[in-house]
Design brief:
It contains eleven helices and 16 strands. The strands form two sheets. Strands 1, 2, 3, 4, 5, 6, 7, 8 and 10 form a nine-stranded mixed sheet that branches. About 0% of the residues have low confidence. About 30% of the residues lie in helices and about 25% in strands.
Length: about 400
């Protein structure tokens, strides 16, 4: 497996485009389409929030048969909490996209992100869809990645390739996510394309597993959104033998590609957290089982006190242990060691006299690494987050206006 240049159009047979429809702001790209002229195997995972945007329910229904060919997405408006009108508007986005591309509306996934509780400006949205459809090309991936951004400061894209059954298989991905990020999907959208041939059942299993290792292990602000989704389209143009067993050699190679892409995008989301100045990586080591390790790692990345301490460059390890304690996992506090980078700060649940200068040096790094050693087994997990800054409050105090 190796990284290659490109994004969602790096795999064979995929086209994309992003345009400005002025949904919320002028001169900002905000409507995108991803399309494969060839039918695709498709799978996805969605927000666990009981308050769901119309696009989530429609897209889940459209993916029930394990097939899709296009994704239409807008930023600037979440089309959430908009009732029957919102559902009609999401359906209209799918129908218009399908008509323009010559496919069935059932084969269009719809995604939206932005302000909750505001009706879609459908005339502008439709004009954007028409323009994006007319401009679809292999060179449109960058524009599409820009079009799905909200408060993101950077495009989040990746492309890679590997050899499966003697065939070169490519995967491309783009995502957005900066705030309203917390495990069990967050304000994040992730779209992945691949030219691999894979069954829908196998793909769905891998997608769910990969989300658990990546997007469900990041936290910016403990909020889970109404619109989150991760969608994978596989058109089979690489010509490999159909992957139908996740445990096969081919299945393992594909899963490695999928996990790598998703973890990379998840880490980019954590680093690009609204107002963030540092990414935080939390490693839980020697846990009795993976579930315990994940609970603890996610709890620490979600701790506002820990996040604020990282921003203030305060080596307050007590906040870390406190977050481990309320994670809901069972453990022996008297065995826990805590490290900030390589500097050991606590041993067997009690503080040590540590080198403040070395701790400060760790806190000044772009990625601040926290290690929690439970000394109770062989399982481990890693989660990612970011510090909590003054700018986070500024951004979210005026998000709607």
């Amino acid at each position: 497996m190796k990284l290659i240049e490109g994004s969602i159009t790096a795999p064979r047979g995929f086209l994309a485009q992003g345009v400005s429809a002025e949904i919320k702001k002028k001169d900002k790209k905000d409507v995108a389409i991803i399309f494969s002229p060839k039918p695709c195997t498709a799978a996805g995972v969605f927000t666990t929030n009981q308050v769901r945007a119309a696009c989530v329910d429609i897209s889940k229904a459209h993916l029930a048969d394990g097939q899709a060919q296009a994704i239409v997405v807008n930023s600037g408006n979440a089309n959430a909490c908009t009732g029957e009108q919102g559902r009609a508007d999401a359906g209209a986005m799918a129908e218009l996209t399908a008509d323009l591309l010559g496919i069935q509306a059932q084969d269009v996934v719809v995604a939206s992100t932005g302000v909750i509780g505001v009706f879609m400006p459908m005339e502008r949205v439709k004009a954007g869809i028409r323009e994006a459809a007319a401009g679809l090309s292999p060179q449109g991936a960058g524009n599409a990645a820009c079009a799905i951004m909200t408060t993101d400061l950077m495009r989040k894209e990746i492309a890679l390739e590997a050899t499966i059954d003697g065939k070169t298989v490519r995967m491309g991905a783009m995502a957005k996510g900066s705030g309203m990020i917390h495990p069990n999907m967050a304000t994040m959208l992730s779209f992945i394309t691949t030219d691999a041939a894979i069954s829908s059942k196998c793909l769905q299993k891998m997608v769910k597993s990969s989300a658990a290792l990546s997007y469900n292990m990041i936290s910016v602000d403990r909020d889970t959104s109404t619109n989150d989704m991760m969608i994978v389209l596989a058109n089979g143009e690489a010509g490999n033998q159909l992957i139908d067993d996740p445990d096969s050699e081919a299945g393992q190679i594909f899963k490695q590609m999928l996990d790598y892409a998703n973890i990379c995008l998840a880490k980019k989301m954590a680093r690009d957290g609204e107002g963030a100045t540092h990414m935080i990586e939390v490693q839980v080591l020697h846990a009795p089982d993976e579930s315990t390790a994940r609970l603890m790692a996610r709890s620490v990345t979600g701790s506002n006190l820990t996040k604020a301490a990282v921003f203030g460059q305060d080596a307050n390890w007590g906040r870390i242990l406190c977050a481990v304690g309320y994670s809901g996992a069972s453990f022996d506090p008297g065995k826990v060691d805590i490290y900030l980078g390589e500097e050991k700060m606590a041993e067997n649940g009690m503080g040590l006299i540590f080198d403040e200068n070395k701790a400060l040096s760790e806190l000044q790094k772009d990625t601040v690494t926290i290690k929690i050693d439970l000394k109770s087994g062989s399982a481990r997990a890693t989660a990612w987050g970011c510090d909590l800054t003054y700018d986070y409050v500024k951004i979210n105090a005026a998000y709607r206006t």
